[in-house]
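Re: the multi-chain job from yesterday

Posting the exact lines I submitted so nobody has to dig through the queue logs.
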Amino acid sequence: MQHLLDLSLEQIEAELASWGEPRYRAKQIAEWVFRHGATDFASMTSLPPALRTRLSEAFTIAPPPVLAVRAADDGGTTKALLDLGGGDAVETVRMDYDPDGDGEPDRVTVCVSTQVGCAMACRFCATGLQGFTRNLTPAEIVTQVLHFSRPSQGGRRETRPGEGAAHRVTNIVFMGMGEPLANYAGTIAAIRWLTRPEGLGLRQRGITVSTVGLVRQIDRLSLEGLQVGLTISLHAPDDDLRRDLIPTAGGTSIDDLVEAARRYIERCGRRVTFAYALLDHVNDEPEQARALARRIRGIQAHVNLIPYNPTAGPDLRRPSLGRVRAFQRELQAAGINATVRIERGVEIAAACGQLRTDVQHAATPLPLVLDA
Ligand code: SAH
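And the result, structure tokens for all chains:
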């Protein structure tokens, strides 16, 4: 059965109009889903009973079942593996940032997946090693966020074990499994629901799309009239090494990506971030930092260094903290703004694709909640 959130608000309005219903019903339904966390039509008591029945015969709004949950960082990081049916599963992670420790996080970021598996085959990425199965639908992306944003206090249902109290989600990063710009339509439709006032109503600037570097789709995104942030995964200062780490990079050069970033900045007025996974003695030498700085100098960019999160399989290592800081210092000395990504959830295998890999390779099913 089709998920209602695979339709846009306008499509729901058109469908209801064809049933002879007033247009405002679509907004009422959206309010039930996004404000009250409704997971079935029967609970939408402001709708006429006949309409509730007809909706439930035509559509579903059920959330995906949860296969496994892990919490870490004193509950500040929670990762869920969601069952999409047919043996497909995806991960979603919630990270709370509560600098003053008052239990009221200043920022709640959800990291969403856009594909089951991934076709990009990055050598260091657990998802890349799983291969590609399929794109997620818009609803499958949006419901990952709803999984973590449904109200628990005064809400419609109990908080699930390991889920923690529901907090208001403030930020979304498209940094889970898959390549968002290879699922362009699904990603854009999800962003529309997440940002429009009748949907989750998040600020567009609170959303970041991370891409392996699909130039044509970066240009397309820059023309959507959205204000979302863009991260381009670079990972190397030269094209040979980049193609070794990202075998599908093909004919796209680092210069092509820098030019695409420049156009994105011009059109959207947003800074672009270059992500750089640091791999011990592969791409973390000081001269590689200097080479990287030369290639990206002159644009409004920022480098986010991600010390490699060891995943099963490839023979790669995480650099020492000393090497990470030395790389960062070289970039800064060359005038490039560089930060090191704060580690979250290492002990729950929060790196892209790791939970699915663990669960599917585990001899026995995982307990629902592991260490908090
Ligand atoms: N396909 C998108 C989103 C992938 S996940 C992209 O390529 O950007 C988000 C980031 O995590 C990417 O920069 C990705 O290269 C990086 N990443 C994946 N596996 C990693 C690992 N094991 N350690 C460190 N970074 C990793």
